[in-house]
């Protein structure tokens, strides 16, 4: 579902964003005070004009000092009456590009099974903003949300491949897919092992865009549904497992942002998605099995529900063989990350301080929060079992997100720099510009930081 700015300014109605406690625009008159307008986030005050018409509106932004993404309160402008609206006189502290993105993000609707597409007010792009770039960012966000929101019955590995092929065609990228037993011939044994019990065959999706410049490789976890395997999840933990391909959805959304905004120019970009369903059948991999990875390291399976790191490991090993300057993995990987930081703030891991600082600053600039966590070397011993090189699920339950990141780092060796994001991919309750459901995390932060991370 596209979100674009209106292009015809004729007869556009003025919309004034207002911080709580600030003086109201002089042209709004005495009506807002009489109507009890308090500039709470997303609060709208319609300004009556002559002959019963409208002459504009105010929208509240809340407290100027409010942290984080509440500043996307402008997304609630979609509750205005139909028509074309023009944001006027942006107050200090509200970035024009941030305001523009908020106006588009508020238009997202997931309508595959119910409801209708957005049919509300349209907005002119605020002055001084690159409208095409903001539209590309919104389009990438919408793609990610659609992919995550679609149930596994309609978004299995085959359908995820079809979505990747459609995107590749749209942006002029090359795509290659290795499927089923060909994964064994191609030396992707752990992707095959995790996905072989499902009706839809496992596969590795490989997309390339651009042929010159430094290389960025993005690996997105594409577990389209996760039963937990033979270590089956309880129903309460399985309810949201359609979102376990959130890393893949975010990677594809980021690729769309990069391509359509022009930010991909001057780079070689590769996206790798191991797409599987972790199912239960007679040929499912078992607790206690020892798998040999693409890299040759052996992995003892102490929990079949720790499957994401297995499929990522083969894909990361492939990526590292090409020695990209920057390698990024995106994965809905551990519940431990949610316990530590909740659903809104994904941790990221990076050994290079300059790269980590650039990504943290990009996250702040884009209002796409991330928080750096350590690759804590003393915990390496926790991922080393007695009968294999690595353990996919260390006992004890401590430092689960860190040990998962350390596991992945073993397979990323050879890349110039490695960054891992342990995302959630889901908005538990509605917020401005972020309805309940699938959500991209980290993509806008990476987009903002890329010119510094990979100059």
Number of domains: 2
**In percent, how helical is the residue content?**
25-40%
Return residue spans where pLDDT drops below 50 for at least 5 consecutive residues.
none
Structural class, please?
Answer: alpha/beta
CATH superfamily of the largest domain: Zn peptidases
Give average pLDDT, whole number: 95
CATH topology heading of the largest domain: Aminopeptidase
CATH architecture of the largest domain: 3-Layer(aba) Sandwich
For this structure, what is the CATH class of the largest domain? Alpha Beta
- Strand tally: 19
Q: Tell me about the largest β-sheet.
A: 9 strands, mixed
- How far is the first residue's CA from the last residue's CA? 32 Å
Name the overall outline.
elongated
Strand content: 15-25%
**How many helices does DSSP assign?**
13
Pfam families: Peptidase_M17, Peptidase_M17_N_1
Organism: Paracoccus amoyensis
Keywords: Aminopeptidase, Hydrolase, Manganese, Protease
GO molecular function, one term: manganese ion binding
Q: What does this 3D model show about the protein?
A:
The structure is a single chain. The protein has two domains: 13-107, Leucine Aminopeptidase, subunit E, domain 1 (3-Layer(aba) Sandwich); 137-453, 3-Layer(aba) Sandwich (Aminopeptidase), CATH 3.40.630.10. Helix 2 (96-105) runs parallel beside helix 3 (131-149) and helix 11 (353-366) crosses helix 13 (443-453). Strands 6, 7, 8, 9, 10, 13, 14, 15 and 17 form a nine-stranded mixed beta sheet that branches. The protein has helices at residues 31-34, 96-105, 131-149, 157-171, 182-185, 189-195, 235-238, 246-261, 308-321, 335-341, 353-366, 400-412, 443-453, and strands at residues 13-19, 44-48, 54-62, 84-87, 122-123, 174-179, 203-209, 215-220, 222-226, 268-278, 290-292, 298-300, 326-331, 347-350, 371-373, 390-391, 417-422, 426-427, 437-438. It is an alpha/beta fold. It is elongated and about 80 Å long.
């Amino acid at each position: 579902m596209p979100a674009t700015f209106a292009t015809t300014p004729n007869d556009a109605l003025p919309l004034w964003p207002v911080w709580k406690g600030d003086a109201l625009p002089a042209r709004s008159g005495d009506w807002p005070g009489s109507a009890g307008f308090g500039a709470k986030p997303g609060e709208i005050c319609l300004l009556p004009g002559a002959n019963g018409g409208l002459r504009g509106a105010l929208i509240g932004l809340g407290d100027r000092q409010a942290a984080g993404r509440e500043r996307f309160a402008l997304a609630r402008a979609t509750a205005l009456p139909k028509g074309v609206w023009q944001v006027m006189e942006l107050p200090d502290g509200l970035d024009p590009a941030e305001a523009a993105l908020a106006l588009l993000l508020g238009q997202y609707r997931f309508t595959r099974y119910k409801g209708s597409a957005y049919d509300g007010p349209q907005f002119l792009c605020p002055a001084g903003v690159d409208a095409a770039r903001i539209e590309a960012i919104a389009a990438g966000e919408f793609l990610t949300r659609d992919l995550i929101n679609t149930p596994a019955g309609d978004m299995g590995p085959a359908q995820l491949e079809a979505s990747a092929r459609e995107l590749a065609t749209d942006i002029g990228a090359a795509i290659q897919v290795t499927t089923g037993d060909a994964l064994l011939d191609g030396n992707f044994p752990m992707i095959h092992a995790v996905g072989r019990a499902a009706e839809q065959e496992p596969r590795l999706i490989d997309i390339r865009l651009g042929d010159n410049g430094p290389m960025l490789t993005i690996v997105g976890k594409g577990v389209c549904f996760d039963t937990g395997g033979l270590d089956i999840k309880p129903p309460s933990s399985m309810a949201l497992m359609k979102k376990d391909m959130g890393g893949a959805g975010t990677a594809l959304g980021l690729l769309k942002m990069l391509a359509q905004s022009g930010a991909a120019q001057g780079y070689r970009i590769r996206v790798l998605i191991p797409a599987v369903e972790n199912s239960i059948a007679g040929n499912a991999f078992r607790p206690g099995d020892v798998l040999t990875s693409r890299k040759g390291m052996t992995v003892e399976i102490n929990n079949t529900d720790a499957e994401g790191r297995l499929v990522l490991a083969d894909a990361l090993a492939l990526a590292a063989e090409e020695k990209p300057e920057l390698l990024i993995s995106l994965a809905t990987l551990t519940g431990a990350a949610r316990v530590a930081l909740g659903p809104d703030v994904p941790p990221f891991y990076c050994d290079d301080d300059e790269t980590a600082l650039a990504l943290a600053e990009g996250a702040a600039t884009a209002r796409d929060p991330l928080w750096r966590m350590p690759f804590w070397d003393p915990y390496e011993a926790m991922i080393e079992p007695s009968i294999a090189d690595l353990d996919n699920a260390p006992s004890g339950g401590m430092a689960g997100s860190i040990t998962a990141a350390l596991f992945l780092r073993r397979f990323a060796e050879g890349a110039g720099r490695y960054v891992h994001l342990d995302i959630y991919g889901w908005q538990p309750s509605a917020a401005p510009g972020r309805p309940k459901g699938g959500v991209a995390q980290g993509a806008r932060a990476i987009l903002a930081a890329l010119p510094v991370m990979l100059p």
